[in-house]
Amino acid sequence: MSNIVVKENKNTNLRFNLGYSIIRFFRENIGIIIGFIVLCIVISIVNSNFLTTNNILNVLRQSSTNLYLALAMTMIIILGGIDLSVGSIIALVGVVATSSIALLGLPVYLGIIAGLLVGVLVGLLNGYVIATTVIPPFIVTLATMNIARGAAYVLSDGKPIRVMSMSFNNIGSGYIGGVLPTPVLFLIVILIICYLIMNKTKLGRYMYAVGGNAEAAKFSGISIKKVQLFAYTFSGLMAAVAGIVLASRMFSGQPTAGEGAELDAIAAVVLGGTSMSGGKGKIGGTVIGALIIGVLSNGLNLMGISSFWQYIIKGIVILVAVYTDVIKKKKS
């Protein structure tokens, strides 16, 4: 009898905690959620094709690639850092994976592993240099951004490398059960992992501590170097996943892939409420921010607006989001 009571109490607590988490999520992100809903309504009024099933799945597929980057970028910005190299890592990983399969004749899984390893190594390099020197993250990742992009051009000779393997191409363009896009399934798994890291582990608490006050975190026994090393290595891994998925979607590895991807990721993070000065931010906010960027890009495409203008609009969005963060910080 007592076991039954204990189980009922556990189930009740679980439901209460879940309900409280959902309510807290909406309360913390009410402004951005309202903005997202208004944006969807406006675009659906302007173009009726927006709310079709195919288009919504397309938005989710496109947003998933940005979210791989944005979730890792959230960790880095909470630390008070930045990673400008993710777009170039996407290109380099795509070229390495496709050339391994198409030119070297390696099995698909080995090509994917090679690409992932390259992304991890670049991220590890970023983290190591940032953690062991006084060079600012902006400069370090700016340097690796150029190195990775240059390496992608050198390895591909500036030309796309096509892959005709369906097992590879299905990674980015396939469906699970004929309904759920494969990249979205990857996103769900990565999202759960990131949520657990940031909310249920010491590592997540350490990131907030380091971003909030690095000196205090150091005196409390937190290894700042290890935290930085993990965050940037994880960012490299997420950029590698994005690179594999994008190359699969395009049926080729292209040295121009991922241009401006870091801009979209940073925009999603700051829109989601993560402070650029570090110490504050939530994974849930980043998800909404990335969906806004995805819906905005999709809506502008449906309205026939040039991609050149889209860069301008996204830049304005980042500026407004950062300015809003500064105003909120002054008020607090």
Automatic annotation (TrEMBL):
Compartments, record wording: Cell membrane
A GO molecular function held by the record: transmembrane transporter activity
This protein's UniProt keywords: Cell inner membrane, Cell membrane, Membrane, Transmembrane, Transmembrane helix, Transport
Record bears the keyword Lipoprotein: no
Main location: membrane
Superkingdom of this protein's organism: Bacteria
Membrane topology: Multi-pass membrane protein
Residue stretches spanning the membrane: 30-47, 67-96, 108-129, 135-155, 175-198, 229-247, 283-302
Official protein name in the record: Ribose ABC transporter permease
Record organism: Heyndrickxia camelliae
